[in-house]
Amino acid sequence: MKKIALYGKGGIGKSTTASNLSAAFSEEGLKVCQIGCDPKNDSTRLLLGHICKQTVLDMVRDKDDDVEAADIVHTGYNGIKCVEAGGPEPGVGCAGRGIIVALEKLKSLEVITDEDLILYDVLGDVVCGGFAVPIREGYATDIYIVSSGELMSLYAANNIAKGVKRFALRGGVRLGGIIGNSRNTPNERALLEEFAKRLHTQLIAFIPRDVVVNKAENNRQTVLQYAPESAQAEVYRQLSRDIMSNEKLSVPTPMTFDELEKLVAEYGN
Ligand code: ADP
Ligand code: MG
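Above: the input record for the complex with magnesium ion. Below: its predicted structure, written as tokens.
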């Protein structure tokens, strides 16, 4: 069983990438489970065709100890198991704590059985204790960071790399690469390649910014469903193959903020 996690800044394209990857893996015949760990609850929307209304935390709040696997595991495109950890009511409680509760619940209900691949989609603006759980507790072993060439996205990516490094030294977690998701910034691909190199990892994909992604999203579908013949769909398929065969899993070497700023200035002007 491969256990991977996608981390990155909010809005950078984690859920879009995760859902298209899950669709690609499932089309290869793999049994896939995607777990959204973001209080936005929209990780699996493109796979389900709607926003998940029964998150793990919702169900725990409503049913307490009577929650069953069927309450929280929803079947999406091509039989993909879809789970949303959920979050606290806005304004109360801690989202990170919510992830801990949700993942413990999934474990105790033995939701994951004979899957070939588990994909965690995790908000990574803050690598607080809760959001680090998928890495810290060994839920995921191969970490991928989604980033564009924007400074703040790279800043979040670098912080996530710091978290991965910390837990890599204790356990088996490794960084599998940076997934570039383009925002069409100057010299973006070269910058991301250099950033990956500095972190002692690789740029495993450079996903173009394409309106087909937005059109698919408006139809509540992945690009693989909406435009299976498109070049964009092929980019996601290629990334799914590269993740499956990836042997370059490393302990990252994060940068200081000054080094990062300098790098972005060098490439971005
Ligand atoms: P996150 O899960 O990181 O918060 P999302 O996956 O929800 O981010 O993406 C945020 C927005 O960016 C969505 O509206 C999505 O359609 C759009 N988006 C993501 N990747 C691309 C891309 N490669 N091209 C065009 N739009 C994209
Ligand atoms: Mg998301």
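Notes for the reader.
The domain at 2-266 is CATH 3.40.50.300 (Rossmann fold).
Residues 8, 10-16, 181, 207, 209-210, 213-214, 217 surround adenosine-5'-diphosphate (ligand 1) (CB under 6 Å).
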